[in-house]
Every structure is written in structure tokens, then in C-alpha cells.
Amino acid sequence: MPIIAPSLLAANFLELGNACNMLNESEAEWFHLDVMDGSFVPNISFGLPIIEQIRKATTKVCDVHLMIVSPEKYITAFKKAGADILTVHFEACPELASTLAQIKAEGMKAGVAINPNTDAEVLAPFIKEIDLVCVMSVYPGFGGQKFIETTYEKVVALKDIITKAGASTLIEIDGGVDANNAAALTKAGADVLVAGTTVFKAADPIAMIASLKQS
Ligand code: DX5
Ligand code: ZN
Predict the structure, then answer these.
(1) Domains and CATH numbers, the chain
(2) How close is the Cα of 174 to the center of ligand 1, in Å?
(3) Three-state DSSP state, 138
């Protein structure tokens, strides 16, 4: 069964406390928190003060996805805000090995996200140092986009890299995950499913989380 990581980007920000309470009661293990800077991606979401508040509202894992340039400048700040997992983008990290080492030195799990146009193979040299690969199944920047079907092949390729290296890296899928593709993603090798719109726009979000969990 996959880990379910609902993305709060799709929540009603005026009622974030209620959204946290709902997730706390649900089978979701992780909170996925999307930070956008208007530079790495063409959108701006939320940052440190919001994550600090969410941290106080849950004991579940805070999985912070940084869609920002120069993420290495903010590692300590996100640790202080309450991140358990800190994911940086491969495309934003010219010194990836050192950035991963810094994240781990702060006591967080280190994640690396790859855009739809980035091959899984680029991560092979780093794979043993990566706790989580976030495979973007939409172009990052917005919730509610259509799932890119070539993601399945990328998951299979990535799984092969992880297995050959004897690594224990988790594979997370981010973007357009829904009740129709969740089972196929898990079968292809996904360990963690992020879902924003699918969870928060569902008539019954707790039931939707439970059903994704069964995939
Ligand atoms: C997109 C974000 C995603 C987004 C997913 O840039 O990284 O986490 O919130 O939203 P849905 O599930 O609506 O595609
Ligand atoms: Zn995300």
C-alpha cells in the first residue's frame, strides 16, 4: 500500500486548520507542502510562516517540496519551520551532492524532484544519498493539471536504478494523481502518492484518501 501525501496547495487557505484536522483523522501519513517562488516556477504559493503553523497542527510527516531557485540558502530555515523531508529540484541544484549532505546534516530526509523533461538517469550517480525521488507527473507550478502518461516509464527506469544500486530510495509521484491512475502507479513502483485536487475537491476527502491507500 502506498503512502498518501495530500497536497495542502489545493486546500481552502482560510480554513487550513480544518484541513489539517481532517488529514490528521485520515489514513494519510504525510502532509505534502508546496513552496513556489515565482522564479523556478511561474507561480507563488506559501512559505515558512505557513509551514510553521501547519507543523503545530500535526504530528504527521511534513514533506516539503521546494520549487525555488537556490534552495541551499533555506535549508536551516525549513528545518526550523518543521520540515521532516526536504525536497529540492535537480534542475535548481548545480551542487546537488553538497545540498543533499546539508539537508541530512540538519536531520531531515533528503528528496530530489525531477521535472517531466528530466531523465531518471541523471539521478543514478546520487541515488544512494537520496531518501526520496519526487517524480513530477505534471509541469511544476500549479495544482489541478492533467497527469502525464509517460510517468509510468520513468518510474520503472527509476526503480531499476534504485534496485541496481541496492538503495532504499522511495519514489513519490506528484501531479494529477487520481483514483484512475493510483493503482497503476503503485504497480509500476511508486511508494508515495501526492494528491491535491483529488483529495480536497472530493465530496468525502477522508474516503478518497482511504481509497487511494488501497491502490
Ligand atoms: C505542483 C505541485 C503538486 C500539486 C499537485 O507543482 O508540486 O504537489 O499540488 O496537485 P494536484 O494533485 O492537484 O495535481
Ligand atoms: Zn509538490
Answers:
(1) 3-213 (3.20.20.70)
(2) 6
(3) coil
Catalytic, 34? Answer yes
Ligand 1 atom closest to residue 36's alpha carbon, by position in its atom list: 6
Q: Which ligand gives the minimal distance to the CA of 9?
A: 1
Q: What is the pLDDT along the chain (215 residues), one digit of tens a residue?
A: 999 999 999 999 999 999 999 999 999 999 999 999 999 999 999 999 999 999 999 999 999 999 999 999 999 999 999 999 999 999 999 999 999 999 999 999 999 999 999 999 999 999 999 999 999 999 999 999 999 999 999 999 999 999 999 999 999 999 999 999 999 999 999 999 999 999 999 999 999 999 999 99
Instruction: For residue 33, give the H/E element and its range.
Output: strand 30-36
From the list 37, 131, 174, 191, the catalytic residue is 174
Classify residue 81 by burial, with Cβ atoms within 10 Å: 0-12, 13-18, 19+: buried
* Ligand 2 center to 7 CA (angstroms): 7
Look up the pTM and report it.
0.98
